[in-house]
Amino acid sequence: MNEEIVLAVDLGGTNLRMAAVEPDGNILYRVKRATPVDKRAAGIVRAIVYLAKEYGQSAKKQKAISAIAAAVPGTVNVEKGIIIKAPNIRALDNFPLARNLEDKLNLECFLENDANAAAIGESWLGASKNFNNSIYITLGTGIGGGIIIDGKILRGAGGTAGEIGHICVEPYGASCGCGSRGCLEQYSSATAIVRLTGEIRRDYPKSDLVKNKSLTALEIYEAGKTGDALALEVFRRQGFYLGIGLAGLINVLNPEAIVIGGGAASGWDLFVPEMVTQIRLRAYREPAEHARIIRAECGDDAGILGAARIAFDNLLKR
After folding, report:
1. How does residue 59 score in pLDDT terms, banded at 50, 70 and 90?
2. H or E element that contains 234
3. pTM for this one?
4. In 187-313, where do the E strands start and end?
5. Distance CA 14, CA 4 (A)
6. Taking a C-beta distance cutoff of 8 angstroms, is the pair 272, 299 a contact?
7. What CA–CA distances, in Å, run from 233 to 45, 137, 141, 185, 281?
């Protein structure tokens, strides 16, 4: 299989990424396009097929393409290759993406949830590569997660394990898109940073952020780096709730490492002190002391690498 490669796809609500990956994780080729605006299932399939064929035509030294694997933003039936529910691309709900790609590309196709794929990518070649038991958390517009137990991804009975963003950290808190209230996603994501700033800005009239009515998480982070009191309090709250969630995960799963990635992880220096304080207050002492909390290393390639690893592992079983 050393002469073979797989095509790995990371399908997001905004961007569609594809890479040609070798068995050792070396990326030979990569491309990024905007996810089709209409986001219809047929349009998604066409876009992926187009990128796959584009690679086939542009590759200078063609190696055998063994399979294609896709990391997708939703709940996945891995065995059947069906996307059960994709909240950000509703047209893919109950859609057999694997079968459609196999029919059009004549390649075996494997699917995985995007956060699970990222967890596998970090476990393979990233921050958690030296640990058999790790938790991956991505802080972005929302919060996703993947759990590695004894070197294997934890999917659960129905494929929904790892929804770390929907751990309840504030029982009577903000309503969440999942239908619950007080989810971690509502307090520690990039979206939460903006919302929390708006909710408490009146208590910080001297903050420069008060004048801006259409803030972004990045702008709040930049203000925090300059010592803006409002921004610092928002990131303290982000760390407070993240610490509550991680303490529960440490108590239940006893991980060797917790890897944190995603765009909102850029505020690391601002939220980590409070996060660590809450973990120390709420988690069992010994497992908390042994759990390393580290930043992700693979960046945007985490999902791509995870999808590729899934494909290679499945091919080896054939």
Report:
1. low
2. helix 229-253
3. 0.93
4. 257-261, 292-295
5. 30
6. no
7. 44, 22, 20, 18, 19
27: left (phi over 0), alpha (psi -120 to 50) or beta: beta
Residues 287 and 163 in one domain: yes
Contact in structure between 11 and 114 (CB atoms under 8 Å): yes
Phi, psi values for residue 228, rounded to 5°: -60, 125
**H/E segment holding residue 286:** helix 285-290
Strand 257-261 vs strand 292-295: parallel, antiparallel, or unpaired?
A: parallel
CA distance 36 to 149: 35
For 261-306, the pLDDT digits (tens) are 999 999 999 999 999 999 999 999 999 999 999 999 999 999 999 9
3-state secondary structure 152-221: EECCCCCCCCCCHHHCECCCCCCECCCCCECECHHHHCHHHHHHHHHHHHHHCCCCHHHHCCCCCHHHHH
Contacts of 24 (CB under 8 A, 6+ apart): none
- 144/166 Cα distance (integer angstroms): 9
- Whose CA is closest to 19, among 3, 31, 11, 2? 31
Same domain, 104 and 182: no
- Domain CATH for 207: 3.30.420.40
Q: DSSP string of 12-59? A: -SSEEEEEEE-TTS-EEEEEEEE--TT--HHHHHHHHHHHHHHHHHH-
Q: Whole domain around residue 110: which residue ranges?
A: 4-119+300-317
Whether 112 and 81 have beta carbons less than 8 Å apart is answered as no
Triad 8, 12, 16: Cα angle to 5°: 55
Report whether pLDDT(99) > 60: yes
Domain total of the chain: 2
Residue with tokens 């859609």: 95
